[in-house]
Amino acid sequence: MAHWTETAFRERPDVFRRHLEDKLAEATAETEDLLALLADNGVEPTTALDVACGIGRHAVELADRGVSVRGIDISESYLGRARERADERGVIERATFERADMRDLGDRTEEYDLVSNLWTSFGYYDDATNRAVLRGMYDRTADDGALVIELVNREGVLADFRPAGVPEDGDALVVESADYDPETARMETTRRVFAETDGGYDYEGEMVYDVRLYAPAELAASCREAGFADVSLYAGLDGAPLERESTRLVVVAEP
Ligand SMILES: C[S@@+](CC[C@H](N)C(=O)[O-])C[C@H]1O[C@@H](n2cnc3c(N)ncnc32)[C@H](O)[C@@H]1O
């Protein structure tokens, strides 16, 4: 059976694409926060590798601010849209997009001031593979650079666990159901999307994602195990302090 990432992002990319497009509205603020957070940590990137870049939400914004960015992703469909967006923004000479798998980062040789992995794009594989992905991101981070990971905080999610919900998503109706397994610390979520029509809704399709959730201390320890010397934790890219029930987790890890 195909891994869920193949099904969700390569075989049926359109179900999630709507969500990616809606999140474009937040990309400018997130990127400005990201650069400010890096500056607070003494890093002013001129080169960046955005791992699992999707439609280039952050890559295009970074390029617009003078950073030379390479975005990698497994979805040709999303990469095509990323290139189109970079072209429209007039930053295509500073933003390149490549089909590549985060599990192969260790095979590359180049290094970047910033390696980013944003919007819960980590934890997709078994624990050993996730550790290898982290090690690959460490290998690609320049000595005076930083890795930034932004993802859900397990402790915050479990403090207010919602097995079902109807999150807002533009003009679509989205119905989500989630299941958390404490033995594996994985959360499997099924997202069913219904597009709004004149008289009601049309079923568009569903997406299942199965993500390993991390507690902050656990992910920080994994970063140190991967080789990072300094690890700072926040509740968001805006640098908000991490609290027990923060729903997001941001890791800034420096070699
Ligand atoms: C939740 S989206 C985040 C996209 C982007 N970072 C953003 O903030 O908009 C997850 C992305 O991970 C990509 N992805 C999944 N598995 C991958 C892998 N093994 N290597 C590279 N990208 C992957 C998907 O195609 C998708 O674009």
Keywords:
globular, five-stranded antiparallel β-sheet, 8 helices, 33% strand, Rossmann fold, alpha/beta, N-terminal domain of TfIIb, 255 residues, seven-stranded mixed β-sheet, binds S-adenosylmethionine
Describe the structure.
The model has no long low-confidence stretch (mean pLDDT about 95). This protein has about 260 residues and is of the alpha/beta class. It has a seven-stranded mixed β-sheet, sandwiched between helices. The relative contact order is 0.16. α3 packs across α4 (about 55-65) and α4 (about 55-65) runs parallel beside α5. β2 (about 70-75), α5 and β3 form a beta-alpha-beta unit. The chain has eight helices and twelve strands. It binds S-adenosylmethionine. S-adenosylmethionine (SAM) binds near residues 72, 78, 118 and 121.
Reading off the top of the CATH hierarchy, the class of the largest domain is best stated as Alpha Beta
Question: Which residues form runs of ≥5 with pLDDT under 50?
Answer: none
Strand order, sheet with most strands: 3-2-1-4-5-12-11
Q: Give the biggest sheet.
A: 7 strands, mixed
Measured on Cα atoms, how large is the radius of gyration? 18 Å
**Helix-strand pattern, N to C?**
HHHEHEHEEHEHEEEEEHEE
Q: Into how many domains do the coordinates divide?
A: 2
Number of helices: 8
Mean pLDDT: 96
The CATH architecture designation of the largest domain is: 3-Layer(aba) Sandwich
- Between the first and last Cα atoms, what is the distance in angstroms? 37 Å
